[in-house]
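Quick question about two entries, pasted in order.
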Amino acid sequence: MKFDSVRLITDDVDRLSAFYEKVMGISAERPAPVFAELVSSSCTLAIGHSQTVQLFGAGSAVAAANRTAILEFRVHDVDAEYERLKPFVGEWVKEPTTMPWGNRAALFRDPDGNLVNLFAPVTEEAIRRFGGRP
């Protein structure tokens, strides 16, 4: 089994896709107006309109209601990414901080309120755990 993607459900695919294009620095593929994918070398971030939920089962997901999952992106320099994204991010939950487990991290919310964590291993132990820097 290979973990391949995460899908966010939204009422505004255009807005959320444009936001993640800025965050990830890649263009979204749009195979349908109600669906977008941002494909990276490690994983795909899929964005589906709330209209697509009925294909999986009515009421199985609710747009902009996530309060448990955090999307995490390993970056080379958390502080540089923080500065780059400041103009686009409306809510920073945590400014760049070195965590007790050895990662430098910054946490923010996307336009739908989903949590996003940018992190980089900075201690020797954390760097070993991740097999080096990105």
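Here is the second entry:
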Amino acid sequence: MLRSAAATLALLLSVLCIMNARPALADDGPVIGGHCEGESSWVTVCRQDPGTSSGHGKTPRASGKHSNGESKPRPQTCAVERLDPQPPASDPVWKGHKPGDGAIYARVCLGDVLGRAAGADMFPDVFWSPKTPAVHVDPEQLAREAVDRMLLTGPDIASPTPAGRYLVGMPVWMWVNRSPTTYGPNTASASLAGVTVTATAKVTKIDWNTGDGITRTCQGPGTKYTAAYGKQDSPTCGHTYTRTSASRQRGTFTVTATAAWTVDWQVDGAGESGQFTQIRQSHEQVAIGELQVVR
């Protein structure tokens, strides 16, 4: 690879970093055909197919788990830049065209940036185009990129926990600890081509599967139990077991807390906005025993 190509690559990567390292969709731009058609003296040229990697890397494209429970390929997010300087006329990337007859562009995708940062042998797509490829910014996709950076997780279950002592017929209070990554609110932005989208995520409900065939939906984080409450039921989120967990594997019920994160996003300086939901889960093992009466 020529030194100027390396400098251009570095420039493109720095541009992406300035753009919060989250470019948006550029699927309408031309793409080189064929699988690694040969190596240009300017840069390696390969096609980017859904489900495959670009360049020489073997990393598959990312898949997103959508709120409907289906796994489907996530659109790769890319930015297109005109190479400056342009490669020499002798470079095969021109495909028989002459300098000035269109131009050579590079598509840099997020997966390439992250892979290269991790030391993988990945390069951007480089192609000839008679006109500047359009970069169509999908604001919702940009919002999803912002959410990815939030590192949202399932609920941080404070009760019930394996260390607790729980009895048949006694109220179990269920609540979670709150933080930006486990409950929200959490806010992040992503930008490309002059468009900035700000997303805010927060948990709007938690579905509790108590492991004994019962599911309860709680609209908030639950109420923390203190001794002053005595044996009363939780005012916000609780459950009373009617049988022990002794017959279960490991002698415990598996409690699952499923959080629905509602994400509201808005294009900065514009009226366009939207909302979507993401799901995160946490699990805990809980032993339910019986009160032993000594006679």
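Reply: Residues 3-18 form the longest helix (16 residues). The mean pLDDT is 74. Hope that helps.
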